[in-house]
Write a structure and sequence with these properties.
It is built from 16 helices and twelve strands. It is an alpha+beta fold and about 400 residues long.
Length: about 400
């Protein structure tokens, strides 16, 4: 039967070739779209967690706004001891994140003050890699690193002093002079113009909070284990006034972006599957109308309706198989090319207000999604073959033989 189905498929070479090519390029387009969206999502997560959020955080239980925790952890030493015992945490550090005001002789600007442990921060985030002048945070006790746009607004340069003001824990207004040790450029409006980094100890003096911090930020060896680490740490930290958060809790808007992009991809997927189904349906119906007398002869010499149906399905699956195989090859080739060369997209400019995000996306394979799409193409082809198969099976040999 397969040999007969193969010969039937290529009896009209041009039509079968066009149908196969339409399926192949449809599947290749789906693979390219899947790879592009998943690559953008992966880089979005990497940039968000690698710039400031980290993979996992520990905050006070009563902190409601996770990006700007307003409660201090009373006993950070015991928390650090437990975090140190967790082997899946690659690096972690204490941090204070608070809003404040930075002033120079020329201007004052409201900023987000991010107080970090300088020796640990480079293992948690990539901010030190964006420094273009000086160093991120050096041995100076009162050093500050800021974006070049903020330095321009304040009209300050390396080595010059600025005054940082923020509300202390007791409600008073703290103020300290810091010397500019580093200027960075990330390309992000928020990071370059609204965030400063200072040493943790200097910030604790500024805020008169002793050794307290308002968050621990950790980087995991495998981000996929964030939920498992969260569960384990939550169990070990139960009884303390803290909560364990993953990047999904802190950067929940990224999950919304992912859902939106996945929804668009699903709609495109459905449209392409409909086009594939119509192509298969058209090819098989045209083939059926051209071979009515042939089916009549086959049924007259003993072919059963079920055999005729299987023949139609076999022809459909041959077309779908060839189209799927060719689509996988073409799609993989495109993805491999843009994995090496990179794909220039304006998304970097669109995201630059919130995050340092590149304008070049390097595509990667997403084989679970690619194979799902390929399976859907095969299933769509099978479903599209049902109407012509039923029609062929219901033919009456005498009427089919008289067909002109």
């Amino acid at each position: 039967m397969l040999r007969l189905a193969w010969r039937n498929v290529w009896r009209n070479f041009r039509r079968s070739l066009l149908t196969t090519l339409s399926m192949a390029f449809g599947l290749a387009a789906i693979m390219f779209g899947q790879s592009m969206i998943k690559s953008v999502q992966r880089q979005l997560i990497e940039k968000a967690t690698g710039s400031i959020t980290g993979h996992i955080q520990v905050q006070h239980r009563r902190s409601k706004e996770y990006k700007f925790p307003d409660k201090y952890i009373e006993d950070p030493d015991s928390i650090e001891e437990i975090l140190r015992q967790e082997p899946r945490i690659k690096a972690f550090g204490r941090r204070i994140t608070i809003t404040g005001l930075v002033s120079s002789t020329a201007a004052s600007v409201g900023v987000l003050v991010c107080a970090v442990e300088p020796d640990k921060e480079s293992r948690i985030t990539a901010m030190a890699g964006y420094v273009t002048q000086g160093r991120f945070l050096g041995p100076e006790e009162k050093g500050v690193a800021m974006g070049d746009k903020l330095a321009q607004r304040l009209d300050v340069r390396l080595g010059e002093k600025v005054v940082v003001m923020a509300q202390a824990e007791d409600g008073s207004m703290g103020a300290e002079a810091f010397r500019v040790t580093g200027l960075y450029h990330t390309g992000s409006t928020s990071f370059d113009g609204q965030i400063i980094y200072v040493p943790l100890k200097a910030a604790q003096e500024l805020l008169a909070c002793g050794g307290k911090v308002n968050q621990f930020v950790g980087r995991l060896a495998d981000i996929q284990e964030a939920e498992l680490v969260q569960q384990d740490l939550s169990s070990r930290l139960s009884g303390r006034q803290v909560q364990v958060l993953t990047w999904k809790n802190v950067d929940h808007e990224i999950l919304s972006i992912q859902k939106f992009q996945d929804g668009i991809l699903d709609i495109v997927l459905i449209i392409i599957f409909l086009i594939v189904a119509l192509g298969i349906l058209n090819t098989l119906l045209m083939s059926l109308f051209e071979r009515v007398r042939e089916f009549g002869v086959l049924m007259a010499i003993g072919a059963r309706p079920s055999w005729v149906m299987r023949l139609i399905f076999a022809e459909s699956l041959i077309l779908a198989g060839l189209g799927t195989l060719l689509g996988l090859v073409v799609g993989s080739t495109f993805i491999a090319y843009y994995n090496h060369e990179g794909l220039h997209l304006p998304i970097g400019e669109a995201m630059s207000y919130f995050l340092p995000f590149p304008s070049v996306i390097y595509l990667n394979y997403s084989w679970p999604h690619h194979l799902y799409a390929a399976a859907c193409v095969l299933l769509t082809s099978f479903l599209a073959a049902i109407p012509p198969a039923l029609r062929a099976a219901r033919m009456k040999p005498a009427e089919a033989l008289r067909h002109v």
